[in-house]
Amino acid sequence: xxxxxxxxxxxxxxxxxxxxxxxxxxxxxxxxxxxxxxxxxxxxxxxxxxxxxxxxxxxxxxxxxxxxxxxxxxxxxxxxxxxxxxxxxxxxxxxxxxxxxxxxxxxxxxx
Length: 111
Hints:
By secondary structure, the chain is mainly β. The chain contains no helices and nine strands.
């Protein structure tokens, strides 16, 4: 399988634009580039039943996040606080950055 390319990175703020959680906003916890998916905080929750492993432990129902396809997510610009398209450009010093196409500001975290 060809490795996918995604514009998302860990800790990005995203909004779900399609599916059962449409309109929800969350932080990206994990990016799976091979599958073109990302795990977003409190989005696409499923319930998993766990079995008791020891005598003193009980079985329980655990809620966890499952990956969602990146095409259903849109990045929120930290500067203008809107969702929108992003672009990539290479600076004079050779660094690659992502920028918001609506306001033109860099999305990368300031160090």
